[in-house]
Specification:
Elements lengths: L1 E5 L2 E8 L7 H18 L7 E5 L7 E3 L4 E4 L6 H16 L9 H16 L4 H5 L4 H6 L1 H11 L10 H9 L4 H17 L3 H5 L11 H11 L5 H8 L7
Parallel strand pairs: 2-3, 3-5
Antiparallel strand pairs: 1-2, 4-5
Length: about 240
Amino acid sequence: MYLLRLPGHPDVFFYSVRNAGSSANFLCILDETASIYDRYMGEMSGRPLTVRLVRPNEIPECIRELSEIRLAASYRYPSQAVYQFAHELCHFRIENPVCESLRWLEESFCEAGSHFVLRRLTPSVFLQGGHEALAEYAPKFSKYSEEILSTAKKVDLADPDQIRRFTMNCYLREENLCAAEQLLNVLSQRTDLWKAVCYLGHVPEGFSFYDSLTIWRQHCPAELQSAVDLMCGIFRQRP
């Protein structure tokens, strides 16, 4: 077993059964995923993180208290690895646990993050780093995103009953995909919304979803609050 550092993120360590040379392409996609979040959410400020692969039948997860991300992905499926890593890294970038009323929104943002990253991994990204094989593969990243989003179940996010369903169960996958797709539309207009996501963990427990939105907005810097307002238009709410 090898412990490898990501090329552009020396505080991110990857446990690998392969050496650095054999893992170069895999390290590259993890590194580029982290770099995209750095660009839109700000750098991780030297927070150490360990990434390891687990068995395919296990569940990908972010274990915040261990500073560890586990991926049920394979070297053979780069799109799957990016999809899982982007999701779990979004969880990791929210430094504090998110309150129950916003957990489903956190899950939807993390899902949106996977598609946000997949769509930004273009051939030129990999050609600059000398990863020709990944450059040829790059068009498949966007296609993978499209295929997953095609399974979304359409829901009305302005319906309070739907919000209650989400609050009771934050893992309604097909419905979360619908929320993620709508969040992606907002993120295409206001990418600074990603910086606001980092403040989701500042909301205390015990408030309704709509009140939690108001508190989240208040915790965000003033320059980010209009991005939160735009996002809240999805729910026809202004916090």
